[in-house]
Amino acid sequence: MVLLPEIDTNSSSSFTIINDEEEVKEDVPLPTKLHPEVEKAKEKLKQLAEEQGIDIVITDGIRTKKEQNKLYAQGRTDKGDIVTHARGGESYHNYGLAIDYALKLDNGEVIWDIEHDGNGNGKADWMEVARIAKDLGFEWGGDWPSFKDYPHLQMDFGLSIRELRRGERPSEQTYADEQAEDMG
After folding, report:
1. In three state form, how does the secondary structure of 147-175 look?
2. Quick count: other Cβ atoms within 10 Å of Cβ 157?
3. Which tens digits make up the pLDDT trace of 89-117?
4. Alpha carbon of 107 to those of 104, 118, 168: distances in Å?
5. Using an 8 Å Cβ cutoff, are 95 and 164 in contact?
6. How do the domains of the chain map onto residue ranges?
7. Lowest CB count within 10 Å: 13, 18, 147, 175, which one?
8. Domain 36-175's class?
9. Strand, coil or helix: what is 50?
């Protein structure tokens, strides 16, 4: 491991760690809450789903690396089914850019039934929520070609996990700028 000083005129000195040919900005902490645009879209998703007669609950948002590693162990070294292929630091949840959802029935029960039609319109509520989420700018894990992660919604703001691990972060204005470009 080699430490190289970086020149940064806006703050105290920082260092870049070069590890396995990947630069990591050591002084960039992981977020402790959802990105503001993800938070806004999450609230709008709940509202729009409710307007369609669908009650959803957000079952997960920001996750620490430790929490992610515990989920990764599930179905491997711990009991249960495999629910993720991402270790700590490899999930958009670790960067405040992802949420998971489930359906909430009138009796308060939370379900993960992708075929349930609680609003009686002939369409699976789960798929209606996924469509709304995609319209709000989320990427849906149910669209992934290999490991289908139906509860998962994320906004990557054009950043890969590798870039996030290196310390890059979306600005709070990124999503609004992307939306303006799409409309203009």
Report:
1. CCCCCEEECCCCCCHHHHHCCCCCCCCHH
2. 22
3. 999 999 999 999 999 999 999 999 999 99
4. 8, 12, 43
5. yes
6. 1-30, 36-175
7. 13
8. alpha beta
9. helix
Nearest to 129 by CA among 34, 33, 42: 42
Q: Tens of pLDDT along 38-72? A: 999 999 999 999 999 999 999 999 999 999 999 99
Q: Which of 136, 141, 137 is nearest to 126 (CA)?
A: 141
Give bridge partners of residue 110 from the DSSP assignment: 104
Q: How many CA atoms lie within 13 A of 156 on its CB side?
A: 15
pLDDT score at 22: 52
- Residue 100 CB contacts under 8 Å (≥ 6 apart), including other chains: 58, 59, 60, 61, 93, 151, 152, 153
Report which of residues 10 and 90 the model is more confident about: 90
| pTM tops 0.90 | no
pLDDT of residue 147: 87
Q: How far apart are the first and last CA of the chain?
A: 46
- Cβ atoms of 95 and 31 within 8 Å: the answer is yes
Q: What are phi and psi of 87, to 5 degrees?
A: -85, 175
